[in-house]
Specification:
Low-confidence stretches: 1-10
Oligomer: single chain
Distance between the termini: 50 Å
Protein name: RING-type E3 ubiquitin transferase
Largest sheet: 3 strands, antiparallel
CATH superfamily of the largest domain: Zinc/RING finger domain, C3HC4 (zinc finger)
Family: In the C-terminal section; belongs to the small GTPase superfamily. Arf family.
Pathway: Protein modification; protein ubiquitination
Number of helices: 7
Radius of gyration: 26 Å
CATH class of the largest domain: Alpha Beta
Shape: elongated
Structural class: alpha+beta
Number of strands: 9
Enzyme class: transferase
Number of domains: 3
CATH architecture of the largest domain: 2-Layer Sandwich
Helix content: 25-40%
GO molecular function: GTP binding; ubiquitin protein ligase activity; zinc ion binding
Length: about 200
């Protein structure tokens, strides 16, 4: 979250009480007071509670808190959405920044075609889509908010593929037969269908 702070000029993403950047979860979640000011959860916990109300540290306006205390105050969802969008865009940028020129050259040397465009050479692997992508197609095919959350790694860091069942290639091999008669044959691995 520190990177968000350094990239924000007017510090709208930080609590004006403690100067820490708001968080999507935990004690730095932004909560709304009745007056409209936003304070992080941790700072609200430190404010004195008088007659089931807390006073805004900026304009002293009272905000009633019920039996659930500070936890019952509404989260500032507009600010949370902004934080989430910034985090998503920074994660997308980080994928490309991580790929230095030398690394890109090394990944291209593998000679794997991009699954989106055969004319391109892949340098990334999406672990969720299980697809090989070049930098351009990675950005365009993962531009939506949901797909931007997919984990993309350099091809050289691609997870090993699980072996497939020889009898049912559509299924991964999940079991190994330990019977003596299976050890002499070439197919000791099997899927859940073959297991029984």
């Amino acid at each position: 979250t520190r990177s968000l702070k350094s990239s924000t000029k007017n510090n709208v993403l930080e609590c004006r009480v403690c100067q820490d950047v708001f968080g999507l979860v935990g004690d730095k979640v932004p909560r709304l007071l009745y007056c409209g000011h936003t304070v992080c959860h941790a700072c609200l916990l430190r404010l004195p509670l008088r007659d089931d109300t807390i006073q805004c540290p900026f304009d002293r306006q009272p905000t009633p808190v019920g039996n659930s205390g500070v936890w019952g105050l509404k989260k500032n969802f507009a600010l949370l959405e902004l934080l989430e969008r910034l985090q998503d865009s920074q994660e997308r940028e980080a994928v490309i920044v991580l790929l230095s020129t030398d690394m890109l050259h090394k990944e291209r040397q593998l000679g794997i075609r991009c699954d989106e465009n055969d004319a391109h050479t892949a340098v990334l692997y999406c672990t969720v889509c299980a697809s090989h992508l070049c930098e351009v197609c990675s950005e365009s095919s993962h531009a939506t908010r949901t797909l931007a959350k997919h984990r993309r790694v350099p091809l050289s860091e691609k997870p090993r593929e699980r072996p497939r069942c020889p009898a049912h290639p559509a299924h991964p091999a999940e079991f190994v037969c330990l019977q003596d008669e299976c050890q002499t044959s070439s197919s000791t691995i099997m899927c859940f269908i073959c297991k029984d």
